[in-house]
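hey can u check if this looks right to u? its 171 residues, i copy pasted from the old doc so theres a chance i mangled smth
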Amino acid sequence: MAPQTKKNRGGKSSKRTLWPWILAVSLLAAGLIGGFVFMQYQEHQSRMRQELEQQMAQTLDVDTFYPGGFVDEIDLGGMTMAEAQAKVQEKIDASLENVQVTVTLEENSKTFTAQDMEVVSDLDQVLAEAMQVGREGEREERYAYVQSLAENPVKLTTKVEVKADPLEAKV
């Protein structure tokens, strides 16, 4: 004997009336799952943004030179302005130790060192410029730029001028 199916009032099979219910439940389940996945994605994006903000703050919100900024071949990364000034000035002073000028007039001669002359440098301006590296523009652009300094460092050089004017009074 063939299985019998119930007929509803209109004489149609009851199996046909289940399809709209199955479809409705399936769509509801798909919507709930999609909503859950979307919420998880949003939470993940929010966590990632917070982590990036923390990394940017740790990198950018400092009172020291960023790594990858050089003055006279000295990496100033992590130094304060005072530390950098002392370190670069020390190098300038060391380079001036061997500066000598000998003045000869007839049979008399006198040798002078850099301490006897006026020494002028643009150290303060160069350090100010180095401190500004990576500190201008939008925050995300600055962060990307500071990160790139490891591979593309900024190298600045001081200019030192030794003026012999004070020697005129001593000659």
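Residues 15-60 form the longest helix (46 residues).
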